[in-house]
Automatic annotation (TrEMBL):
Keyword Oxidoreductase among record annotations: yes
Cofactor(s) this protein cannot do without: FMN
Coiled coil feature spans: none
GO terms, molecular function: FMN binding; oxidoreductase activity, acting on the CH-CH group of donors, NAD or NADP as acceptor
Key words, A-Z: Oxidoreductase, Plasmid
Similarity remark: Belongs to the NADH:flavin oxidoreductase/NADH oxidase family.
NADH:flavin oxidoreductase/NADH oxidase N-terminal domain ranges (all copies): 8-331
Pfam families (UniProt xref): Oxidored_FMN
Any single GO CC term annotated in Swiss-Prot or TrEMBL for this entry: cytosol
Protein name: NADH:flavin oxidoreductase / NADH oxidase
Keyword Transcription regulation: no
Length: 363
């Protein structure tokens, strides 16, 4: 017996695609790639299991050696990466799914032990985040990064567009730029991490410039209707403080990005409801909303109210490969196990139980 979950089970246009429902798998790092950044063999099964969501956004994927922060995260800038991702995208497509690769440059959230070239991390400014990071030899302090020169900032933009082109070659339906959670793009936004005096630091316009240039470059490379961005206005992780001007920076940034006609903006919501309402008004393309820890009973409320066009879920999808079937059947959800989030193999990755055939309404 299906419980109607309208309007989550109505179709929606996102960029050049018509998605069958408004449920999105939020991007989640799982640290199970090979040391050269090629996605692991089990990743295909992991994503295929979740192909019934309207859209899969992959784990954060680095656009370059410098862009890697954590251990064994995948990349998308070499022929081996492209071949690895192609297996995943084609298997997801065979199941009727859609998949955007999230491009994540970690910036200063990086440890040299985790990257292929073992170099010092790069960032807007030489300011350490004041945080630790897991490495092959355990937790270590993150060292002070090296500030990118102006020329290197431009080269980093070019690395993003090369990675976007590689993602499309690998069969991805599009690219989500990771502009959230204290990584490189957000490091440019925050005066606590960006004390630059060139055109990428100082005023709101200057601090937003890197994000806008990355989005513009990728849109030119693969089409605006295959380009998207994730933002987390107000995130205060790992030394990131956007200051009193933060909300105004996002109003400016979203209005500028809106002009590009991107596929969607993905908001990882913190707590500023008036800012979220402003973003909704400033943005004419689809808006994906992720509210951390959203209770099961609230799924669909933001789409119903018109605040969002799609809703993204992380841990619930991680722990429930048959998330869509469970929602439709109003069945209980598995709990996620944080011990198996990062690294390891099949356990906690592709072995979460699905509903029995008797109650599973999927076909
Ligand atoms: C294991 C794990 C890994 C994550 N990795 C990423 C990531 O690579 N990129 C990203 O934008 N967010 C990442 N997130 C954040 C999620 O996308 C999401 O915003 C967060 O889990 C809150 O939503 P939820 O309560 O529905 O899980 C991660 C979350 C988890 C639990």
């Amino acid at each position: 017996m299906e419980i109607p979950m309208n309007p989550m089970f109505t179709s929606v246009r996102v960029g050049r695609y018509m998605l069958p429902n408004r449920l999105v798998m939020a991007p989640m790092t799982r640290s199970r790639a090979a040391f050269d950044g090629t996605p692991g063999e089990l990743a295909t099964e992991y994503y295929v299991q979740r192909a019934r969501l309207g859209l899969i956004v992959t784990e954060g994927t680095q656009p370059s050696d410098d862009g890697q922060g954590y251990l064994t995260t995948p990349g998308i800038y070499t022929p081996a990466h492209i071949a690895g991702w192609r297996k995943i995208t084609s298997a997801v497509h065979d199941k009727g799914g859609h998949i955007f690769i999230q491009l994540m440059h970690a910036g200063r959230m990086s440890h040299p032990d985790n990257t292929p070239h073992h170099r010092q991390g790069v960032a807007p400014s030489a300011i350490a985040p004041g945080a630790g990071m897991f490495t092959a030899t355990g937790m270590q302090d993150i060292p002070t990064p090296r500030a990118l020169t102006t020329e290197e900032v431009r080269r980093t933009v070019a690395e993003f567009s090369h990675a976007a082109r590689s993602a499309i070659e690998a069969g991805a339906d599009g690219i989500e730029i990771h502009g959230a959670n204290a990584y490189l793009v957000q490091q440019f936004f925050a005066p606590s991490a960006n004390t630059r005096t060139d055109e990428y630091g100082g005023s709101i316009e200057n601090r937003a410039r890197f994000a806008i240039e990355v989005a513009t470059a990728i849109a030119e490379e693969v089409g605006a209707d295959r380009t998207a961005i994730r933002l987390s206005p107000g995130t205060a992780l790992w030394g990131i403080d956007e200051g009193a001007e933060g909300p105004d920076l996002y109003r400016y940034l979203v209005a500028e990005l809106d002009k590009l006609g991107l596929a969607y903006v993905h908001i990882l919501h913190q707590s500023n409801e008036p800012l979220l309402a402003d973003i909704r008004k400033l943005w004419r393309q689809p808006l994906i909303l992720n509210r951390p820890g959203r209770p099961r009973g609230q799924i669909g409320a933001d789409v119903a109210s018109g605040l969002a066009d799609l809703e993204a879920f992380g841990q619930m999808v991680l722990a429930n490969p048959d998330f869509v079937a469970r929602l439709k059947a109003d069945a209980a959800m598995n709990e996620s196990d944080p011990k198996t989030f990062y690294g390891g193999a099949a356990k906690g990755y592709i072995d979460y139980p699905v509903l029995s055939a008797r109650t599973d309404t999927s076909s």
